[in-house]
Design goal:
The protein is of the alpha+beta class and 442 residues long. 50% of the residues lie in helices and 11% in strands. It is globular, with a radius of gyration of 28 Å. It starts with 5 loop residues before the first helix and ends in a 5-residue tail after the last helix.
């Protein structure tokens, strides 16, 4: 049976002994009632921040958000985030309360929270459940505390949290909460893209992320407008059963749940609507859709404030997907060299998922092809073949000794690497030195 971490209970006990009500709240209570060990511990207390500092004098305490009443208290190494009971004013920016007022009332504190399953508290007196959270938990239902419209107007990010919780927990949204979410979706534009991206990544990697995206295409398009033309777009192809959006979501479900790879899978065919043509038989074709999709994916990554490396990862996968590479050692070695092993295997995973997500009977030939590509790549890596400049048997000093200067050094080394990767030269120092010193063009 799941039990509370005694280190978290020690924080509550310390506050109770000092005369302040203290409870655990939010996700840790929800998880415990579901029979799962909490991932982290959040608490709430009647003690003001300065009173908490006094109670925990001598403890390791971090002033996480003092003006909002939040301190992180380390109890024998366990971080417990404690926040003073509070009420909140209006939310002019649809994200942060304009003002926070501390209160001694647990009921007032719980009434400001987002969803009933997150508005339960556990403390010395047992469970406090003022809004039917336990019943909603058993019904696998996500319901806003109070008026859903007001909750989403206060903090628009709560809409994404609702979808993310639905995807993570496998819960459905209460009809009133779902209706309010549909009406308030445009307010997501007022939330910082960094926060939107953090929630989106969790949603994409959640067990039921695909189901939620298929149920809520409007929400997906609100976050990623590049997907808009894909929703309901008939591919008119004997090789695809689904519209472009559905195919993209199903492809996303079939790749490993790493955020950048899942985002690339979701966006991999966004270029199809603008590339669409039909032949005389009415069959759809999508020339150059990967390049067009990479441009759209780059715009999405820039808007979501992804790092340069994340952006390049996503756009490279979108641009390179569907190349139909032959399962030949020379070809696999070439692309391992160009992409690097990790990106190569992600591209392989994307192409395999793309093939499986067409909604047609499994293609045994295609599956055998991907297995052979994977096996060849792993054999090449196990042999430690030369795939990058650092593996090359010569370096910049050798190029200098051969009389090369400036940009010619890099050009020569890259040409040598290409010769080695393609199997036209062995990666032996004497052979490569000879090539560097020769008059013939490399």
């Amino acid at each position: 049976m799941t039990t509370w971490d005694p280190r978290a209970l020690a924080v509550l006990d310390r506050l109770e002994q000092a005369g302040y009500q203290a409870v655990l709240v939010g996700g840790c209570v929800r998880d415990m009632l579901r029979g799962e060990s909490p991932h982290d511990y959040d608490g709430a207390t009647a003690a003001r921040p300065e009173e908490m500092l006094s109670v925990f004098a001598g403890w390791h305490v971090v002033q996480t958000g003092l003006k909002h009443g939040t301190l992180t208290i380390f109890s024998d190494g366990l971080p417990v985030e404690m926040t003073t009971f509070r009420t909140e004013g209006t939310y002019t920016d649809h994200r942060h309360p304009d003002q926070v007022q501390f209160t001694r009332s647990l009921a007032e504190d719980l009434s400001r929270r987002d969803f009933t399953v997150n508005a339960m508290a556990w403390g010395k007196g047992g469970l406090t459940d003022l809004f039917g959270g336990q019943a909603d938990l058993e019904a696998r239902l996500l319901r806003a505390v109070g008026q859903a419209e007001r909750r989403f107007q206060e903090d628009a990010l709560r809409m994404l949290r609702a979808l993310r919780f639905s995807a993570q927990l496998g819960f459905s949204l209460h009809p009133d909460t779902a209706a309010a979410l549909q009406r308030q979706l445009p307010a997501l534009d007022q939330v910082s893209q960094e926060r939107v991206c953090a929630e989106l990544f969790q949603l994409l990697c959640a067990p039921s992320g695909g189901r939620v995206l298929l149920e809520w295409p409007r929400a997906a398009v609100q976050i990623l407008p590049e997907l808009g033309p894909a929703v309901g777009f008939d591919q008119r192809s004997p090789y695809h059963r689904f519209d472009v959006y559905t195919h993209c979501v199903k492809t996303m479900e079939l790749v490993p749940n790493r955020p950048e790879l899942r985002l690339a899978a979701l966006l991999h065919d966004v270029g199809k609507p603008s590339a669409f043509t039909q032949d005389s038989q009415g069959t759809g074709h999508f020339p150059d859709h990967a390049r067009l999709g990479a441009d759209l994916a780059r715009e999405a990554c820039l808007r979501l404030r992804l790092s340069n490396s994340q952006r390049e990862w996503v756009t490279t996968l979108v641009a390179r997907h569907g190349m139909a590479l032959p399962a030949e050692e020379r070809v696999v070695r070439r692309w391992l060299s160009r992409l690097g092993p990790e990106l190569f295997f992600d591209l392989l995973a994307l192409d395999r998922a793309d093939s499986l997500a067409r909604g047609l009977p499994a293609d045994a030939g295609a599956e055998a092809h991907f297995l052979r590509m994977d096996r060849l790549a792993r054999e090449i890596l196990a042999r430690a073949d030369c795939l990058s400049l650092r593996d090359l048997a010569v370096d910049g000093r050798d190029a200098l000794a051969a009389g090369l200067r400036g940009p010619a050094i890099g050009q020569a080394l890259n040409l040598l690497l290409e010769e080695v990767v393609e199997g036209r030269l062995p990666n032996r120092r004497e052979v490569l030195l000879s090539a560097l010193g020769s008059d013939r063009p490399l």
